[in-house]
Structure prediction request, 210 residues.
Amino acid sequence: MVPQLHVVDHALLAHRLASLRDAATPSARFRRLLAEIGALLTMEATRGLPTVTARVTTPLTEMDHRMLAAPEPVLVAVLRAGLGLMEGGMQVLPEAPVGHVGLVRDEHTLKPSQYMLRMPPEVKTRGAILFDPMLATGGSAIAAVQRVKEAGAPHLRFVCVVAAPEGVAKLAAAHPDVPIFTAALDEKLDHRGFIVPGLGDAGDRCFGTE
Ligand SMILES: O=P(O)(O)OC[C@H]1O[C@H](OP(=O)(O)OP(=O)(O)O)[C@H](O)[C@@H]1O
Ligand SMILES: O=c1cc[nH]c(=O)[nH]1
Ligand SMILES: [Mg+2]
Prediction:
């Protein structure tokens, strides 16, 4: 039991995830599904954002209304596959500044290495939502969270699509302050570090590489 893990249960999410997992789904459709899933997960990950009551004048009268208390948080994609997922986050939070962390996992050691980092200055005050569809061994997520914390984020959330129990346990142990939102908690990792049943290599399926 990992208290910071939120497995988001929604019929529309489940329906899209079924198609995303399907090996026959081509790249263009895979990207569209990933963006739609990103939007649905961002709705859930932002449910608890602080709000204030402000006065609003409608064409008919005045009323007190709930609004966001602070500007939208920074959105950060873990390249490459996080780009597709963050697309949906940007639709839900259109005014959010955007950061990127480039990480690639070595297929033999399964260790991530970083090849780029760009973070907007607002991350220091607004906090961040980090997007990467796959939480497998957890190495990439731990490194990405660390980079965003080092950039000054006072708080952050991690959004993924498919998580392995191993990755959830490692991320929660390394960063217990970071809530994890996922569309599915899968069964296990295989001997190559792939999530089972999973959906394969998210970056390759997104961008048509091999
Ligand atoms: O939890 P881990 O074991 O670290 O694995 C997960 C990472 O693997 C994938 O990226 P990949 O390294 O394949 O890069 P890509 O997105 O460019 O394909 C995925 O998008 C995660 O970043
Ligand atoms: O199953 C997996 C594991 C890591 N990265 C992926 O893209 N898929
Ligand atoms: Mg990949």
Remarks:
- The longest helix spans residues 27-45.
- The two ends are 35 Å apart (CA to CA).
- The first strand starts at residue 5 and ends at 7.
